[in-house]
Amino acid sequence: MISESEKSKQMVSVILFEIEGEQFGIDLLTAREIIPKGQIRRLPQTFEFVEGIFNYRGDIIYIINLSKKLRLAEFKTLKKKEMELSGEYEANSYIIVVSINNIDTGFLVDRIINISHVKASSIIELSPIFETSVSIEYIKGIIKFEDRPRIMLDVEKVLTEAEQVQIQKELNI
């Protein structure tokens, strides 16, 4: 078991990104690549949060619209609306390619903020009384930054087991 003093010295690299004006993070080690959004082919009769499929290095991957999956559309911030009006904000412009139980999947995000290196001790578990616009089931923890906290998503839990099985089944057809 890792002692508290060892944990405070360990560093974690986190990709910070934005969806619907909200900033989130995921562990850099869970990401395979960050690519600009390319041509996504729409699919009929699939999950409403699936944006479509994408040719990623010769393999077909599903693109998950995190805004829809996390139900963030109703929580658009005033800041995002102002940035959209000024032309500083282009929604859905990047894909973060991750592997969820050996299924390559792309997360569609509005923009990449940066890659930050934080102490492992600055990622805290979510308290049951903490209120957020994101369902607690998708949250790995809260990253304490000096300016404000950010939600760290648990990549493995973004898709339920049933959704993973269905996507894998469709990819193998």
- Level-1 CATH class name: Mainly Beta
How many strand segments?
Answer: 11
Rough outline: globular
Strand order of the largest sheet: 8-1-2-11-10-9
Radius of gyration, Cα only, in angstroms?
17 Å
Question: Span from first to last CA?
Answer: 44 Å
Tally the helices.
4
The largest β sheet comes out as:
6 strands, mixed
What is the CATH architecture assignment?
A: Beta Barrel
In terms of quaternary structure, the protein is: single chain
Could you write a compact summary of the structure shown?
By secondary structure, the chain is α+β, with helices and mostly antiparallel strands. The chain has helices at 4-9, 66-69, 78-86, 161-171, and strands at 11-19, 22-27, 31-36, 50-56, 59-65, 94-100, 103-109, 111-119, 123-124, 139-143, 150-153.
Give structural attributes:
173 residues, alpha+beta, OB fold (Dihydrolipoamide Acetyltransferase, E2P), 6-stranded mixed sheet, 11 strands, 17% helix, globular
Your description of this structure?
The structure is a single chain. With 173 residues, the chain is of the alpha+beta class. It has a single domain (14-171), classed as OB fold (Dihydrolipoamide Acetyltransferase, E2P). Helix content is 17%, strand content 40%. It has 4 helices and 11 strands; from the N terminus they run αβββββααββββββα. It has helices at residues 4-9, 66-69, 78-86, 161-171; strands at 11-19, 22-27, 31-36, 50-56, 59-65, 94-100, 103-109, 111-119, 123-124, 139-143, 150-153. The protein has a 6-stranded mixed sheet. The longest helix is centred in the C-terminal third of the chain and has 11 residues, at 161-171. The termini are far apart.
